[in-house]
Specification:
Elements (H helix, E strand, L loop, with lengths): L24 E11 L2 E11 L4 E4 L7 H8 L7 E6 L5 E4 L12 H6 L6 H10 L17 H15 L3 E5 L7 H12 L4 E5 L3 H6 L3 E6 L2 E4 L3
Parallel strand pairs: 3-7, 3-8, 5-6, 6-7
Antiparallel strand pairs: 1-2, 1-4, 8-9
C-alpha cells in the first residue's frame, strides 16, 4: 500500500529587504461608502510606525477588507488621503481567490515580475513548504482553493515586504499550517495590519487590537 503524502509545512519566515525610519503610513480623513446611506468609515485618520502591529476584527460589512484594499492601492477612497513612506514595500494578501482562472503554471505564476533563473525560483519556492514538487508545472486554475491560497502566501514571502496587509490569512489553511504562519508573523520585524475573525488568532496574535466603529479605527480589548 503506498504511503500517504507528507503534509506540507510552512518552512519560511517573512524577511523584509528594507527597514524604514519614521512614520510608515499616514492616513488622513479617509472616507468610503458603498452607497450614500451606508458609509463604511468617515474621516478616518491614523498613523502606522515601522514596527506597529494592528489586528482588526469585528462584524462582517464593517469595512475591514475595504480598508486593506484601499491601503493596498486596489480601490480608491471616496475622500481623504493616505501616504506610505517612500521606502515602504507593501505586501498584500487578499481574502478572495485572486487567480481562479489562471492558465499559467504554478512556477510561472510565482516568477511573474521577478528577475532570475527559473531553477533558482523553483528551488526557492519549494523551500517554503507551501507547494508540492509535483504541482510546480500544473496550471494554477487546476489547483484547489487551498492550494492557491498557499501559492499566494509563497508569492507574498518572495516580495520581502516591510509591511504586510493580511486579510483573513488563515482562510483555507489547515490548523497546523495556520499556527506555523502565526509563528512566522510573530518574528516578522516589519509592520502588520491583519484582519481576522478567527478567535484563536485574535487571542494569540501579539498586536494592538482594533475595530472599525463609528467610522473610525478604535482600539478594543479582547
Amino acid at each position: 500500500m503506498p504511503q500517504p503524502p507528507v503534509p506540507l509545512r510552512f518552512c519560511a519566515t517573512f524577511e523584509p529587504s528594507t527597514l524604514v525610519q519614521g512614520t510608515l503610513l499616514r492616513v488622513e480623513q479617509l472616507s468610503k461608502a458603498f452607497t450614500a446611506d451606508r458609509p463604511l468609515f468617515q474621516a478616518m485618520s491614523f498613523e502606522l510606525a515601522p514596527h506597529d502591529r494592528l489586528l482588526i476584527s469585528g462584524a462582517n460589512g464593517a469595512g475591514k477588507s475595504t480598508l486593506l484594499r484601499i491601503l493596498a492601492g486596489a480601490v480608491p477612497p471616496d475622500t481623504g488621503t493616505f501616504c506610505w513612506h517612500p521606502h515602504a514595500i507593501v505586501g498584500y494578501l487578499a481574502q478572495e481567490d485572486q487567480c481562479p482562472n489562471d492558465d499559467r503554471t504554478v512556477l510561472q505564476h510565482y516568477r511573474t515580475g521577478r528577475i532570475g533563473y527559473p531553477q533558482d525560483h523553483e528551488r526557492e519556492l519549494l523551500t517554503y513548504g507551501l507547494v508540492a514538487p509535483e504541482d510546480l508545472h500544473r496550471p494554477v486554475r487546476l489547483l484547489s482553493v487551498g492550494q492557491r491560497r498557499k501559492l499566494a502566501l509563497a508569492c507574498l514571502l518572495a516580495q520581502q515586504a516591510n509591511v504586510l496587509l493580511l486579510d483573513e490569512p488563515t482562510n483555507q489553511l489547515s490548523l497546523e499550517l495556520a499556527e506555523q504562519l502565526e509563528q512566522a508573523l510573530d518574528v516578522f520585524t516589519g509592520a502588520i495590519i491583519l484582519v481576522t475573525h478567527e478567535r484563536w488568532l485574535i487571542e494569540h496574535f501579539c498586536a494592538m487590537h482594533c475595530q472599525i466603529a463609528h467610522g473610525q479605527l478604535q482600539r478594543t480589548m479582547i
